[in-house]
Amino acid sequence: MEAILEQTLKDNHFLLDTAKSYLLKEIVPQANKIDHDPNTLFYALRGLGELDLLALKVPRHWSGKEVSEQTYGTFQELLARYSGALVFLQTQHQSAAGMLVASANSSLQERYLPRMGNGQVLLGVGFSQLRRAGDPLTVATPVAGGYQLNGVVPWVTGWEFFGEFIIAATLPDGGAVYGIVPLVETHQHSGGTLTLSPPAQLAAMTSANTVTATLKNWFLPTESVVFIKPAGWIHENDKKNILAAVFMATGCALAGLDIVESVVSRKPLPFIQKAFDSLQQELNNCRNAVREAQNNSSLEFAERLQLRAWAIDLAGRIAHAAVTVSSGAAIYSHHNAQRVYREALVFTVMGQTPAIMEATLGRLTRSGFENEPHQSNLRCGSSSRKVRGGRRGSREGTEEEKKIAYSRVIHLSHVIDSDIPQWQGDPPVEFETVAELHKDGYYLRRFSLGEHSATHINASNSFHLDGVGIHEYSAESLVVPGVVIDIREQALVNADYTLCVEDILSWEERYGKIPPGCVVLLYTGWQEKWSDEKAFLYQDEQGSMHFPGFDNDATRFLLEEREIAGVGIDTHGVDSGQDTTFGTNSLVLEKPRIVLENLTNLNQLPPTGATLAIGALRLRGGSGSPVGVLAFVP
Fold first, then answer.
1. CA pair distance 457, 594, nearest whole angstrom
2. What GO biological process terms are annotated to this protein in UniProt (predicted)?
3. From residue 572, how far is each of 422, 452, 537 by CA, in Å?
């Protein structure tokens, strides 16, 4: 089982890396052309097929990739970041594949599914008309051997890309039949016709060739039926999949941020940098909340709906920011900011239901300046509070106040007791009562433990002769933002796993670039082993310990390329149990930076957004200190 899990993780990482490499090399240079030229879009879609990326949620026995919802969401976000037209078009095909997977028509499955991943067969969909109120636009009448279809399908994307599409038509009982019909004008021998309008001139993604299909007495044979669903099924399905289109909106928002960030380097204006930082933080918070919602089946529909509206709102605002910082150049239709802004408009209404419209309008007309949902499950059940810190400048008013916005506070330190796991050779943890309440009028104990026992911080002098002691660490250096990288799955299958640069870059694809001045916390899952010293230290017969840590190359990357303030981990050392050179400790502590070990409750922190307050004992010349670490969580 562990081997299967490890291979699945590798496959998912490889898939996303392959997709990103293709997008950066082949799609980014011609993203604007892809938006309006069908031929260029066709070759872009074919490229995904050549990489076998067009049936991601199809089971492996049908030659699909069978990826998780999380991996599929990340894939959709990647595509939307680099080409709205491409993600828009291929989503139709991926949706059709998913419908066939759910079908009981095995002959259709055998005919289509094995050839969908590589693009040998391309299918579209046409059922958005079922969401409209009033009389049905497309109706199906049961006849001998199948159904007779009449009406209009106002929105079918992929003409001249897809040979066929899955249509939906309303049955007399209010249910709907879904079946495969050609996406080309056709006259049946029985007299049925299917005609198509010219492609619609959309605000964006015109290259995807969206047309209207009109059917008159079209015969849909039973063998072409994908499935039949009861009345109201599409509305329930929309509720169930309310977050499905979120990733296209967040991908569009990332595209807008890319533009703003590129302008920052050319126009070193502080207000542009400030806007970028603010929008990036909000987008990261939104993406984190969406990921958490994916893993929380108990989250109410109303709360998922607010996340959808938040993502739509962010895509629009960040795209608007991209236009703003690009100045007059953004007016040109070929400018990236112009394209991304128009894509944001399309993603606003894609798959729209009345509930989504209402939630989106609610955000657009909200009072005040709150940018995040207010539902208790999303915001941890309390209002936001702010802790004001000192000013950066020496004179009052010369610098902006530092503030910590939070809704909850988490202990990241273990309770200290005499039986906690101890590094071999460390002094024991001892407590001695020196005053008792009934005898002395108060209760007091003396305690003794090593400077690197329990949850603790390592000081620079613990690995460098000229390093400073813990008492010389400034107060300001002990209040820092924290980011959390989760490697539990890797550590589950390999106790000696070390964080590598590829892990960091993959994390940044989901949550944004690691900001300078933060502490990177590595969540390995070892905190769960704390009460079992044998499992926590995991020593083999030779006395060698086994637990995860930071790879030295990853540490150098974080220090040099991301300029972090330090690292932390929920094991007994930031260096893996197999690293007897203490490489990461030595690298980080070349300067008086932060190294935190034996942390806990990392599972309660978001990937970004938390602020750490590290309470260290000011032991003169100390090589470190047990610490009480508090995390202020937004």
1. 7
2. L-tryptophan catabolic process to kynurenine
3. 8, 9, 7
